[in-house]
Amino acid sequence: MGGAAGGIVDTRSYARNRLAAYGWGAEQMNALNVLWNSEENWRPGQVDRGMSYIKQRYGSPANALKFRNANKWY
Hints:
Layout: H1 2-18, H2 29-36, H3 44-57, H4 61-71
Helix pairs in contact: 1-3, 2-4
């Protein structure tokens, strides 16, 4: 279990470091955490694909979270 938790922490750190590359500030990290909370074992490549999808479809994690809350998917 410790290894999986370590992977999650590393992946979230990776995502946090990539926020600026998508034009987002640190305040978007909370929305990403909520969106991805149920996901397990994300790898950096998956994070990049997920962030790219969010950027293209919703513009920001906060907008994606608003959509998900209203529609139960994003």
